[in-house]
């Protein structure tokens, strides 16, 4: 009997290491839904990485005051964020009994442990003191590297200051790892831009692009909450997290806060 010819992977497979990628899904149970859960979790992690790359590109463009390139990168990130939101639809196709059938094998695993997700939050400007301290102490190198840079919103405020807007000095001088706190004087800057969009077209375009990024992130969080409520009801999350109550609380958070609050005064 002649042996089967050796498999030679096509260039597409070797270039993107597709064979290795498909070996990473290793369910711990025979439950029907676990493979899909792992696959979608992997997809979300990779999409987090894509959004991080686009937002970092936007940040670097804004450091050189290149608003068109900044907005182009922000627009790409929004498209990817929409795919992230859509990922919940696949997860949502799982019934609660299917999820319960393998939930126990997760042990202490929790989505809150994703360093890519946390890096994305840090990059956009959500840098709570406790999470920053934990990341600097023993967090993933990606997190420590991110905390050494100004957030995207910090970079936006620095750019606006260079354009002659009256951004408060304390917002510009704070250490990179510190979280930006909402400031009524920053509201004044955005209010001025939106009252005179023809005078400040680049700044107005930048603001609208940023708000869409923040909106899509909030959309992702809100959809996450609905899926968790559908799967867990009032149960605690994995690894002892608070589950839906924690998600409800974080749903109140808004990135680029003054871009939301100034509208009351417009």
Automatic annotation (TrEMBL):
It comes from the Bacteria. InterPro entries: Trp/Indoleamine_2_3_dOase-like (IPR037217), Trp_2_3_dOase (IPR004981). SUPFAM superfamilies: Indolic compounds 2,3-dioxygenase-like (SSF140959). Pfam families: Trp_dioxygenase (PF03301). This is Tryptophan 2,3-dioxygenase.
């Amino acid at each position: 009997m002649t042996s089967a010819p050796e498999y030679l992977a096509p260039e597409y497979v070797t270039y993107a290491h597709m064979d290795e990628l498909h070996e990473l899904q290793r369910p711990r149970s025979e439950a029907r839904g676990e493979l899909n859960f792992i696959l979608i979790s992997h997809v979300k992690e990779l999409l987090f990485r894509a959004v991080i790359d686009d937002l970092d590109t936007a940040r670097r463009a804004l450091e050189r005051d290149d608003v068109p390139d900044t907005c182009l990168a922000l627009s790409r990130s929004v498209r990817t964020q929409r795919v992230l939101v859509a990922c919940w639809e696949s997860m949502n196709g799982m019934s609660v009994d299917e999820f319960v059938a393998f939930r126990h094998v997760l042990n202490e695993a929790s989505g809150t442990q994703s360093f890519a997700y946390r890096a994305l939050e840090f990059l956009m400007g959500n840098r709570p003191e406790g999470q920053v301290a934990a990341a600097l102490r023993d967090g993933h190198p990606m997190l420590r590297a991110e905390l050494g840079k100004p957030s995207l919103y910090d970079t936006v405020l620095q750019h606006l200051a260079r354009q002659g807007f009256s951004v408060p000095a304390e917002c510009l001088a704070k250490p990179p790892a510190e979280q930006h706190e909402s400031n009524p004087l920053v509201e004044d800057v955005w209010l001025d831009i939106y009252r005179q969009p023809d005078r400040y077209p680049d700044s107005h375009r930048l603001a609208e692009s940023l708000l869409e990024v923040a909106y899509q992130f909030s959309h992702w969080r809100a959809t996450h909450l609905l899926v968790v409520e559908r799967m867990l009801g009032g149960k605690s999350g994995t690894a002892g997290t608070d589950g839906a109550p924690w998600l409800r609380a974080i749903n109140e958070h808004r990135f680029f806060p003054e871009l939301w609050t100034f509208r009351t005064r417009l």
